[in-house]
Amino acid sequence: MYTCKFSNLDNKVAFITGSSDGIGAATALFFSSLGAKVAIVGSDQSKLDKVAAEYEAKYSYDVKHFQT
Predict the structure, then answer these.
(1) Strand partners, 15
(2) What pTM, to 2 d.p., does this model score?
(3) Cα(61)–Cα(46) distance, integer angstroms
(4) Domain count, the chain
(5) Name one Pfam family in it (predicted).
(6) For the segment 18-34, what is each residue's pLDDT rounded down to a tens digit?
(7) Which of 64, 19, 7, 6 minimizes the C-alpha distance to 37?
């Protein structure tokens, strides 16, 4: 079992590339669950919109997303 070395990312910002799906999207969700505000970046705008909407609904804050 993996133990996270940090458990609280309140007032922190995570800038995550490749976050329109897969590991990047999972990482963004994980950091969000620890309280971080996330900025997600990816090459597929429609996937980024979907990921951002999911996080906004789950964590009730605006997720910034940028297409590269």
Answers:
(1) 39
(2) 0.76
(3) 19
(4) 1
(5) adh_short
(6) 988 999 999 988 888 88
(7) 64
